[in-house]
Design a protein that fits this description.
The protein is an all-alpha fold and 92 residues long. It has 5 helices and no strands. The chain has a single domain, classed as 434 Repressor (Amino-terminal Domain) (Orthogonal Bundle), CATH 1.10.260. The longest helix has 31 residues. The chain is elongated, with a radius of gyration of 18 Å. The chain starts with a helix and ends with a helix.
Length: 92
């Protein structure tokens, strides 16, 4: 959760809350949480607004890296589940 941590640091340095940031950007706080948790990816106009708000502290690359890390984690979990299933069935 590199992206989420970077944004938390950004907010802390400016003594802002997530709600204040979402109000200042004109976006629902749930939308921003979705991006930071990797549940959603922002549309271009929202991505640009978010980057502008953070004054470049967070870049588009941060979103892509976060998305890649989440996908790799999901693949790893899926691979482990498949291995576990094969191990469990081999003893039958």
């Amino acid at each position: 959760m590199i992206l989420k941590n970077k944004f938390k640091v950004f907010l802390a340095q400016r003594e802002k809350t997530m709600i204040e940031a979402s109000n200042e950007m004109g976006m629902p706080v749930q939308t921003i949480y979705g991006w930071l948790n990797g549940k959603r990816f922002p549309r271009r106009e929202h991505l640009n607004k978010f980057i502008g708000y953070t004054q470049g502290a967070i870049t588009a690359n941060d979103f892509f890296i976060e998305s890649k890390n989440i996908q790799e984690a999901k693949i790893s979990i899926s691979s482990n589940e498949v291995k576990s299933d094969k191990t469990n069935h081999s003893s039958i």
